[in-house]
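Residues determine shape. Next comes a sample protein:
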Amino acid sequence: MPTTPERRCPECVAAVAHCHGTLIQAAAPECTDTTCADLDIALHPLVINLADLTPVRSRSVA
């Protein structure tokens, strides 16, 4: 996230541990932020649990 005065992350300003990426919960959790150092769910406001997703059936094109 840019650190310009117009756009400052409140958690960054307050020095609160957090992540700007999305945590993807799968067999091995991963984060979309390549600088993420801690995969703790509490540090990620955005979480996708792959087990909760419904597979999309492929549609045939007529």
Remarks:
- Residues 10-13 form the longest helix (4 residues).
